[in-house]
Amino acid sequence: MHGRAVERSCRPGFHFDATALECRPPAAANCTLETDPCPPYDDPENIIFHPDENFCNRFHICYRGEKMQHNCGEGLYWDRVNEFCTFPEEADCPTSIVCPNIPGISYEPHPNRCESYFICINGNLVDVSTCSYPMIFDIHERNCNTPDIAQCIRDPCIGTVGHVTIPNPEDCREVVFCQNGRLINTQMCPDGHISDQGGICQPGDPETCEIFPPPDA
C-alpha cells in the first residue's frame, strides 16, 4: 500500500497460493516455503546463485534480499553445481519435465500438482501455468476442467524419453505405453500375469505384484 508491503493473513483454514495470488483451501494452494532465501545484505565477494526449479535455462541472483531472474544464452543451461551457463549435455540440471518432440504448442500435466500444467512449444518448455480454482488439468483432454470431469491420475509416462513400456504404478496388471513422455496406450495382462519393470507380462501375483520364479528355478 502506497509503495510499502502490508502483511495480511488468509482466513482460518486457508493458505495463500503464490501462483494464483489468492487464498485457497490447503489442498489446492501452491504454498511452498522458501528453503533457500537470499540474505538481506549483498556481499560482492560472495554472489549467491539459485537455480530455477522449472527451467534449466534460467537462474537467479540474490540482490538486496530478493531473487532476480536471469536467462542463459540461447541453447545453454544453468549448471547448478558449477554455477555457470554451459551446454545442456554438460550442465547438471536434473528435471522430470519432458516436452514431447512435436511441432507447435502442447500442454503437459504437472507431475505433482493437479491444478498446474506445462506449456511446450516445438518440444521446448516455455512456461508453467495454473488452472483457475477449483478447476484441475485433465491429462487426457489436455485442458482445465472441473474435478468431477477432469482426470488427474499421475501420468506414469512423465519423465520418460522415446518409446518405452512400463508397468502402471497403480495397477501392476496393466502395461503402459509411452512415447516421448506421453501416455499413448494401455493394455491389461492376461489373467494370472503382471507387468515386470520392462512392461512385459509375466506370471505373477496381482495382489502382491510379485513375479513367480521360473518353473526350473
Written account of the structure:
With 217 residues, the protein is an all-beta fold. The protein has three domains: 72 residues, Antimicrobial Protein, Tachycitin, Chain A (Beta Complex), CATH 2.170.140; 61 residues, Antimicrobial Protein, Tachycitin, Chain A; 49 residues, no CATH class. The chain has no helices and 18 strands. The strands form seven sheets. It has a three-stranded antiparallel beta sheet, with no helix packed on it. A three-stranded antiparallel beta sheet has the order 8-9-10, with no helix packed on it. InterPro entries: Chitin-bd_dom, Chitin-bd_dom_sf, Chitin_bind-dev_reg.
The CATH architecture of the largest domain would be: Beta Complex
| Count of structural domains | 3
Largest sheet: 3 strands, antiparallel
How far apart, in Å, are the first and last alpha carbons? 74 Å
Protein name: Chitin-binding type-2 domain-containing protein
Organism: Phlebotomus papatasi
GO cellular component, one term: extracellular region
GO molecular function: chitin binding
Descriptors:
217 residues, mainly beta, Antimicrobial Protein, Tachycitin, Chain A, three-stranded antiparallel sheet
What is this entry, summarized?
The chain is built from no helices and 18 strands.
Please write out the topology.
Layout lengths: L14 E3 L4 E3 L24 E3 L6 E6 L2 E6 L5 E3 L4 E3 L18 E5 L6 E6 L2 E7 L5 E3 L4 E3 L17 E6 L2 E9 L2 E7 L4 E3 L5 E5 L4 E2 L6
GO cellular component, one term: extracellular region
GO molecular function, one term: chitin binding
Protein name: Chitin-binding type-2 domain-containing protein
